[in-house]
Amino acid sequence: MSGEVKVGIAGLGRSGWWNHAATLEALQEMYRVVAVSDPIEERRREAIRRFGCRAYPDFESLIGDEEVELVVIATPSHLHAPQTIKALEAGKNVVCEKPMATNLAEADAMIEAYKRTGRTLTIFQNRRYEPAFLKVREIIQSGKLGRIVLIKIYWHFFGRRWDWQTLKKFGGGELRNNASHVIDQALQLLGDGEPEVFCDLQRTLTLGDAEDHVKIILRAPGAPLIDIEVTRACAYPQSRWLVMGTQGGLVGDSRSLRWKYFDPKDLPPRKVEEKPTSDRSYNREEIPWREEEWNLSGRYGGEAFLFYEDLYRTLRGGAPLAVTPESVRRVMWVIERCYEICGEKNRV
Fold first, then answer.
1. At what angle do helices 178-190 and 131-142 cross, to 10 degrees?
2. CATH C-level class of 5-124
3. Fold topology of 129-301
4. What confidence score (pLDDT) does residue 283 get?
5. How confident is the model at residue 193, as a pLDDT?
6. Residue-range domain boundaries for the chain
């Protein structure tokens, strides 16, 4: 593999600037930002100073730039689908920020466009690379915890928001934004089956008209029940991760996890007894627990780096795409089901 990928970034807000531009700048042997687009002039000037790139006030000029081979769509959510399709049709490969789209029909149109054009499309579900998530998945797959009964993933916050992501007309709301990360992680743990979905959406502290409290339960045959909460109305946050298994459990957050388990061979054989206990007590025994822990040392923000390193192997080395649009379509399917269950029309 050799040769830097020439990138154009659409949108220089929070995500475009910090998650994408800063990451690509640090991966100079793989990528070079050659163009950007943003309607705010000062942001364009800042990008010119930092990257020595071309800067356009509109998206059409960006995708018309012949040097750009990869377009990063980091614009407001309601623009993701139409801009992705335009970029693919202009012959560009595309990284689209999450949420992939505002609804499932848009996601399907994006998938159709990338198949029709033969270009590469991936979605920035960078939380698939989160160290704590990868460790949780490793422990579950190890079998140490036995059959997994329940997985809770809780993102608890308390506070108001009043930016564009609180408005339905821009594709805002906690379900599409933070919850899309959690749903994506949950589906990786759930497996390939189509889940049954329960959902409750509420507006609590937000100043906008979109939801800021999300409760989702996913259930599928042969898979653990997955309980998701993403809310801005929790004054007493609970652990981000809680896993219950038939041989142990796990608890923790993004920086620290601990788990305990036992080997069934270490327990004495038992059989059901119909007679009462001699001392009128409940059945009880000492469990020979084995305990382990994991801690993230230092600061970590490497999810974006790992995402782009994988993408480079695809673009320059022909490796299979790590985050396929089809896999993220499952996230959009769950989001769509949630709005249907809660009676949200939600078309923007």
1. 20
2. alpha beta
3. Dihydrodipicolinate Reductase; domain 2 (3.30.360)
4. 87
5. 84
6. 5-124, 129-301
